[in-house]
Amino acid sequence: MQEFDNNKVPIKKLWQVIVASSVGTVIEWYDFYIFGSLSAIISLSFFPKEDPTAAFISTLAAFGAGFVARPFGGVLFGRLGDLIGRKYTFLLTLLLMGGSTFAIAFIPNYEKIGLVAPAVLLALRIIQGLALGGEYGGAATYVAEYAPDAERGKYTSYIQTTATLGFFVSILVILATQQLLGDAAFKDWGWRVPFALSGILVVVSYFIRRNMDESPLFSKLKVEGRLSENPLKEAFASKANRRLMLIAMFGAIVGQGVVWHTGQFYAQIFINKILQVDFITTNLIIAASLVVGTPLFVYFGSLSDRVGRKKIMLGGMALAALGYYPLFSWMSTIVAQEGTMVNGAIFLNWTGKLELAFICSLLVTFAAMAYGPIAAFLVELFPTKIRYTSLSIPYHFANGVFGGCAPFVATWLGAVTHSNFAGLFYPIALAALTVIVGAIYLPETKGRALSD
Question: Which residues cross the membrane (predicted)?
Fold first, then answer.
């Protein structure tokens, strides 16, 4: 087999790899986040309507269950990715994610089948989480193993945009569907349309990914007979590798997870459910902030190739920990001053909308700093033969348990304390803790060659 040099991959080939990986990952994130974006509406379809707050929190708990399932998906599919290859593993995760999302569109509501409805919803949500637990590690590893050492932050940061783009696409599809069907029909049955569309998107992505080549670094190990026979055992058997996974989790990923989910998804909940801004305005504000913020993931990923991963990631988390309370308080003041209550929802004037969009753009900027360089950092931290497994386990455990549950925990804290801002204690504390641990223990990986 001809020796592969990732520093000499033609730029055309590199972009083919990035596009094929990114398209599928955007769709998987779209699938994952339409559930969250529609949680306030679908809560009344799958849970008793007598207590809307309890129904909403129950739906967020089901949303959180998908995140809790992610570490198990990371274990399962990380092992498969190190045994049979990156390409085939994230083809499988794509089909699982798309199939479960498509199925949610056809679950009968609570009035028809009672508790079976939330039970089926929860089961499908767990399948989504398992699939996502295998997707990210595969996409990040696949792109990174093609990228040149000196520009790995730049090229892997395109994968980092996919979560935000998937969230953005979910918002656009939801708003378009609502406008076409009308508010009443959308709340009754139209919310199912964005879930059903997943079937089409997954088929398109499958055919794009099916023609991809396997990662050359993985293929090289396979030809040489040096693949890991038990990646999970090897990942944990080595004291040095266990230490790296723990450092990655508590010195980078926990903070990154809460900053990403608080700055985008919890901001949406805060504006719509807590401040009571109308549904359309809320989603337009979030969408505008994502348009502004998405290119910053690539900017900060590229910047990390020059100044280092550690400074940028920890800087974003520190800014979030310091800025969340004043920024969310500022949002509350804007809504109080610039909003008008009409039929149970607050409508903002243009000044209020622009101010909220500006604040949300700052929140996305913090997320871009924390998240943009992290794929390159994680790939550079672990050896090729157990990379998929070693990356996926801490990433999905920290993001699933700590980051993904941030909206649920924050909303629950606000509900039990009757405070609009009590929920911010959770992301602020975890972001600050991660900065401290990362500053002490996190290694700098910028420019490292990928080891076997």
Answer: 54-77, 89-107, 113-134, 155-177, 189-208, 244-267, 279-300, 312-336, 356-381, 393-415, 421-442
Q: In terms of DSSP bridges, do strands 339-342 and 345-348 run parallel, antiparallel, or are they unpaired?
A: antiparallel
For residue 176, give the 3-state DSSP assignment: helix
Q: Which helix (H) or strand (E) holds 345?
A: strand 345-348
User: Looking at residues 109-113, what average pLDDT do you find?
Assistant: 87
Distance between CA atoms of 255 and 425, rounded to whole angstroms? 13
Contact (Cβ atoms closer than 8 angstroms) between residue 213 and residue 146: no
Q: Looking at the DSSP assignment, which residues form a beta bridge with residue 347?
A: 340
- CA–CA dist 136, 244 (Å, integer): 19
What kind and span of H or E run contains 319?
helix 309-338
Name the 3-class secondary structure at 214. Answer: coil
Rounded CA gap, 143 and 158, in Å? Answer: 9
Residue 147 is assigned to a structural domain of this protein: yes
Q: How far is CA 374 from CA 50, 133, 300, 397, 414, in A?
A: 43, 16, 10, 15, 30
Q: 0.85 cut: is pTM over it?
A: no
Q: How far apart are CA 91 and CA 87, in angstroms?
A: 6
Closest among 219, 157, 96, 48 to 377, alpha carbons compared: 157
* Nearest C-alpha neighbor of 349 from the set 337, 359, 336, 338: 338
Which CATH number is 177's domain given? Answer: 1.20.1250.20
- Of 10, 5, 21, 16, the residue nearest 375 (C-alpha): 21
Other C-beta atoms closer than 10 Å to the C-beta of 342 total: 9
Q: Domain for residue 333, yes or no? A: yes
450, part of any domain: no
Whether 365 and 433 have beta carbons less than 8 Å apart is answered as: no
Check if the beta carbon of residue 329 is closer than 8 Å to that of residue 421: yes
CB 125 within 8 A of CB 66: yes
What's the domain range around 105?
6-441
Enumerate the β-bridge partners of residue 348.
339
Q: How many domains does the chain have?
A: 1
- Domain assignment present for 451: no
Mean pLDDT calculated for residue range 362-376: 95
Distance separating the N- and C-terminal Cα atoms of the chain: 16
**Residue-wise pLDDT tens digits, 131-153:** 877 777 777 888 888 888 889 99
Average pLDDT over residues 85-113: 84
For residue 294, give both structure tokens: 């998405």
Across 1-46, the runs of DSSP E, i.e. the strands, are: none
